[in-house]
Amino acid sequence: MFNSSSGESNPTAIAAYGAGGLFAFGWFIFIDACTVHSVERLLPPIELAHVVPGLISTFALLMTCSTPFTAFSNDSMLSSNVSCARVWLFSAFVTSFASMIMSVAISESMAYGSESRFAYAGIDGTGGSGGESKHRWVGTATLMQTVCIFSASLLWISTRLQQQQY
Question: What is the pTM of this model?
């Protein structure tokens, strides 16, 4: 985190720690929502569909982290490595956006229940006896989780691209 010679901070290391913190915070939010949700016995159980957007977003972050950013250096802009790296990074972004769209659909269906145009089998917004807000917290946490993980991947990309400038 710090340069050993001058003692000043390295911005790329701080940004990498920030990306890891965002990733951990996203999963913390989701685990907290699942814990709060499991305390209430009258709420319907958490479905696999609630977990899938976070897993897909995590996979997209791993795809971003495994992108060879050395292919983007100025001396190799015309090689096939750049094309492969760009396709890989683009597919990581598409995967991440797909997980965010899925989490928006889940959050919206949990907020409005079966009247929702995005509602699908297994997830409805009926919480019963005052548990509606806790049931909606799972949908909101799913959305916040995917946004935090996507922000972590953007921060990681900016870190890696800044690292090549030094």
Answer: 0.77
